[in-house]
Amino acid sequence: MKFLVIRFSSIGDIVLATPAIRCLKKRYPDAELHFLTKKKMKAVTEANPYIDKFHYFDKDFKGMATALKAEQFDYVIDLHKNLRTLRLRFWIRAKWYSYRKLSLQKFLLTKFHWDVMAKEHITTRSLNTLLPLDVSDDGLGLDYFIPDREKVDLRTLPEFLHQGYGAVVIGASYYTKKLPPEKLTELIDRLNYPVMLMGGPEDTLIGDQIISNTKNKKAWNSCGKFSLNGSADLVRQADWVISHDTGLQYIACAFQKRVMAIWGGTSPKLAVEPYYGAKASATARSYRNYIVPNLPCQPCSNFGLKACPKKHFNCMRLQNIEAIVRDALQGF
């Protein structure tokens, strides 16, 4: 038996789909499980032991589709469900299962603020896609696997991080998902604890500015210094994680970290809040969402925007930094 699981992007969404991959492989251990994603997302799953073969999309749709057709899959599990996977369906002759994407419900929530979303997490919907195959949730939560070659030795980092640190993820894919630099600086100032700033190369400059302006002399900017898997390993070794709505938030959940999740233009109402699994310990399965209350414009989008549509950006500018700091340092 041969399965193909599809999830093209993004980092967080792929991580949120990992329970479906694991549970499918555990239910059919002798089957071949293939995974299709974008080439630029390769690092997210390259060390996943539940995947037998990888396929990557990088511009050449026809070439990809031809190669997939030749595999002669028995079943395709579509956890992306977009026009590209619809086109693939006409190429690959197999039994096809697609997850409930809830596009209309998300549109109504973000454009008219009518909340008719099914109260079902995206990970649960991915798992439910497998019910016709007699696959059930094992309750173990999200997976993230780091190649040994990309693990980070803390002894190579500043000494003040060696005995423990908190991770503050300053990056995100869109402007409306990120605290403004001055709010991030206030956050780092108030954290009387060793702190590592985390993000991609595009966040390096803002990270350097925060380090230059903060009063916290035990803060270090890791943005742009590590690969995705290197950053994931630093999240794995952190004491706790403060994060915007971005991939490292869900990677933190995969490592059962306590998460302070900050929401701006997006919202956990979109069924994407931190996820741990039913069998996680009560201590590990701990997170808190931070949302400015009583904002009629929030959420304003499903993925984030390049600018605040209302110009005020109150969903981030009015965040209660004191509460986030208190919960990070004292727990909840």
From TrEMBL:
KW Lyase (keyword) present: no
UniProt keyword terms in alphabetical order: Glycosyltransferase, Transferase
A Pfam family assignment: Glyco_transf_9
Molecular function as annotated in GO: ADP-heptose-lipopolysaccharide heptosyltransferase activity
CDD domains for this protein: GT9_LPS_heptosyltransferase (cd03789)
Gene Ontology BP annotations: lipopolysaccharide core region biosynthetic process
GO CC annotation terms, alphabetical: cytosol
Recorded superkingdom: Bacteria
This protein's name: ADP-heptose:LPS heptosyltransferase
Organism the protein comes from: Arachidicoccus rhizosphaerae
